[in-house]
Amino acid sequence: MEYSNLVKEKFVELFGEQPDGVYFAPGRVNLIGEHTDYNGGHVFPCALTIGTYGAVRKRDDNKLRFYSINFEKAGVIETTLEECVPANAAKDGWTAYPKGVVWTFGKKGNPIDKGIDVVIYGNIPNGSGLSSSASLEVLIGTMLRDLFGYELSMVDIALYGQYSENNYNGMNCGIMDQFASAMGKKDNAIFLDCATLNYEYAPMVLPDAKIVITNSKVKHSLVDSAYNERRSSCEKALEELQAVIGIKTLGDLSEEEFEQYKIAIKDEVRVKRAKHAVYENQRTIRAVEALKNSDIEEFGKLMNASHVSLRDDYETSCEECDILAETAWTIPGVIGSRITGGGFGGCVVSLVKNDSVDLFKEKITAIYKEKTGIDCEIYVVDCGDGAGRI
Ligand code: GLA
């Protein structure tokens, strides 16, 4: 059954009426530009064709009822508008995401004064780092905009999702994931300047290569706190640099400028973190340029360099993802391979020549299993459209 019908039928079964609408918001994979978004740099993600589906109806009281087909045992979770406050986030489980978005609308001056009934189903593999939470936030934001008639752009919806995740869920993420989910375009990746939110689409249908995602199936603990810690290191390094050079963000620096001024950063670890942010931003700009010139080999080399930098300087990779990327580099027909997303587990993204995809699957699966005992999962993906009513 189509997932849109699945959520619709479940909605009718549970709530006894037709929903007002059925929506979809995708997950994302980032091709290059990692941990650059909150550093005022560039990112290059694309929306996927997997994501979160939802059926919704506006109520005429203050109740909210949530049901996830992924967590059937939890049943229908009932709450009220008054309960949508950050203090409840820790005990809210998955409903912290929709409740956070409801709360955010109010904070932004677009109050939600009636409840909703929602049924969702997500087909993004759990804990894979392909942005299931951002897709849920963007899904709910799009639904609320339509149901309550607020004139918001999809960029606003992305910003609401990020605000919610930062201030309701306490995860200080940048804008990349929500932006990709809201603004994705079929067959395109998005070249986004996170300092200005200027963006352009770049066609990502490669004549002889595929985007292949390998799921390490591991997610190390304390990911959110390690992420927040990386972010504050970069903020501290920026402050130290601002004492010697007039910049707004690390994304303002070229590699040469960084090398010239890095002496201002008073801690070795912070130098490495800031170096990654600066160099990764420049790599991303160069990678998109290479793609425009159909120089896919150069794009691949920059992906590999991105992985090395995340492994050695930013230290957000992990043994399992290093095995996946480093094994990929040895397979003929692999153009580039790197860990993608926040890190500490999750997925590795590779560009693989069409006629090497089978060999890639076979080798990666066998070598990863031999070295870690884990069965990885491999998905050959397409770039999909952003969120909307379906
Ligand atoms: C997570 C965050 C994003 C971004 C990436 C790293 O996915 O949600 O904002 O910082 O990590 O590039």
Structural overview:
The longest helix has 25 residues, at 268-292. It contains 11 helices and 12 strands. The chain is globular and about 60 Å long. It has a domain at 3-204: Ribosomal Protein S5, domain 2. α2 crosses α4 (154-167) and α6 packs across α8. The chain is α+β, with helices and mostly antiparallel strands and 390 residues long. The protein has helices spanning 3-15, 96-107, 132-148, 154-167, 176-183, 223-242, 255-261, 268-292, 296-312, 319-329, 357-372; strands spanning 21-32, 42-58, 63-68, 77-80, 116-122, 188-193, 198-203, 209-219, 334-340, 345-353, 377-381, 388-389. The strands form 2 sheets. Strands 1, 2, 3, 4, 5, 6, 7 and 12 form an 8-stranded mixed sheet that branches. It has a 4-stranded antiparallel sheet with strand order 9-10-8-11. The chain binds alpha-D-galactopyranose. Residues 30, 34-35, 37-38, 173-174, 176-177, 341-342 line the site of alpha-D-galactopyranose.
